[in-house]
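Hi support team,

I'm filing this because I wasn't sure whether my run with BV8 finished correctly. The job status page said complete, but I'd like someone to confirm that the output block is well-formed before I use it downstream. Pasting the exact inputs I used:
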Amino acid sequence: MTGKPRNIVILTGAGVSAESGIATFRGPDGLWEGHRVEDVATPDAFRRDPDLVLRFYDLRRAALADVHPNPAHEALAELDSAWDGELLLITQNVDDLHDRAGTARMVHMHGELTRAFCRICQERQDAPPEMRSGTVCASCGAENTLRPDIVWFGEMPYHMARIDSALSSADLFVSIGTSGAVYPAAGFVREAAANGARTLELNLEPSEGTMFFDEARHGPAGTLVPAWVK
Ligand code: BV8
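And here is everything the job wrote out:
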């Protein structure tokens, strides 16, 4: 990695997990049973058809058992453990591949497939393998009150105070495998640049926000990220 940044902020999206076999949202394989993610990942969809939404997450949670971190996840975990400056990896992804690769300094801004929370006592807890066949809250014992611990469209993303603080002091912002279609994540590059950070996009193709980056490299994350980290 050229230059000598001190404080690095990394944003990842579905493209970083694509080579692990997890479908992205807006690519050719981007629909789930004919639904756009915007139509299923909403509180209204959950109210209207909880079984459809719970099945969407049950199937994706079950699929985690068959996928593994790829060289992009591994390289980012190595950077996290070796970097002596500040570093925060912000992932939009709800899979656990960054966690399994060993990245420590990270936040899941859109929540996690492996977690749930109780709509009665609000306690967060591990998600049971299959939520659509009934749940019991591990904290208050209520039945069928768990929902996926996922940030749906129209809901406030998690960890925004920590994210804003990291963006205010970043001198390097790197976006990896995201289309730049979803806010507030898609606005982070402008926030970092306004605070004086250099900005780099690593993506298969130009994202919707590619014009906001100082530099963009296009190709698969499994190749680009290890080369950048070196
Ligand atoms: C908020 C969890 C405010 C779900 C997700 C109208 C009503 C309400 C809100 C809005 C509205 N209009 C706009 C909004 C804001 C909305 C939004 O941005 N909508 C978009 C669609 C316009 N945002 C929100 O609602 C957010 N909340 O605004 O709250 C608020 C304020 C106060 C109080 C309360 C609320 C919440 C957004 C979070 C939604 N949840 N995920 C789930 O995962 O099931 S978002 C969803 O999209 C995923 O998390 C995903 O990560 C994310 C972004 O997509 P990407 O990761 O970028 O994936 P994508 O497929 O799009 O792109 C992949 C990229 O990888 C591509 O560029 C591809 O080229 C590249 N690629 C592919 N293969 C590779 C690769 N790159 C490298 N290597 C490869 N091999």
